[in-house]
Design goal:
The chain has about 200 residues and is mainly alpha-helical. Helix content is about 50%, strand content about 5%. It contains eight helices and four strands, in the order H-H-E-H-E-H-H-E-H-E-H-H. Strand 1, helix 3 and strand 2 form a beta-alpha-beta unit. It starts with a helix and ends in a 10-residue tail after the last helix. This is ChbG/HpnK family deacetylase. It holds the Pfam family YdjC. GO terms for molecular function: deacetylase activity; hydrolase activity; metal ion binding. InterPro entries: Glyco_hydro/deAcase_b/a-brl (IPR011330), YdjC-like (IPR006879).
Length: about 200
């Protein structure tokens, strides 16, 4: 289902609970069968996990599926610091957060789900390597303990309309100097969020 259609159904109250449950269970089953373990974290493609018609169903399934086990952390989409980030990219980050970050934070507080502090890495997904490298420097400098930097690196595949920008991200993230950029910004990679 296209994102626009899904959002329309969510906010018009026409999203079928059984369809959501089936999609979620299928994805959890596939993940666990393929990797042989539960996920470390939960998110949704294009952040759909936080939408009002999806998040309550997700939480219900998570409570049942992982009762008595280590809880996976939930992606919290409120934007982090946006210093140096262009206005249109900042606006996109705020829009994504507005679609459900507060509800994810509420669930985390009430039920003890771990979450990241804030999210970085949102942009209009265009501009090639040079633009992505510039944005990455800003995100690294803006990062605080527990922030999550999302990225979409990939090698080109035939049917991916975003292939060029995925490759640009891949090329930037594969640079040997990335470790130096992270060190200079005081950033390190951790498996679980601090919060």
């Amino acid at each position: 289902m296209a994102l626009r259609t899904l959002i329309g159904r969510v906010y018009s109250g026409r999203l079928e609970r059984a369809w959501v449950d089936n999609q979620l269970l299928r994805q959890f089953d596939t993940f666990e069968k393929t990797l042989g373990r539960p996920p470390d974290y939960i998110d949704g493609h294009q952040h759909v996990h936080q939408l009002p018609g999806v998040l309550p169903r997700l939480l219900c399934i998570l409570r049942e599926r992982y009762r008595g086990r280590r809880k996976p952390w939930l992606r919290y989409t409120a934007p982090g610091l946006l210093t140096g980030i262009p206005i249109l990219d900042s606006a996109k980050a705020h829009l994504i957060g507005a679609l459900g970050a507060d509800e994810v934070a509420r669930a985390a507080r009430c039920e003890g789900w771990p979450i990241n502090r804030r999210m970085l890495g949102i942009y209009r997904f265009q501009g090639g390597e040079r633009r992505y490298a510039r944005l990455l420097h800003h995100w690294l400098n803006n990062a605080r303990d527990g922030d999550l930097l999302i990225c979409h690196p990939g090698l080109p595949i035939a049917d991916d309309m975003s292939a060029a920008q995925r490759l640009a991200e891949y090329e930037v993230l594969a640079r040997p100097e990335l470790g130096d950029w992270m060190r200079l910004s005081g950033v390190r990679i951790a498996k679980r969020p601090i919060r």
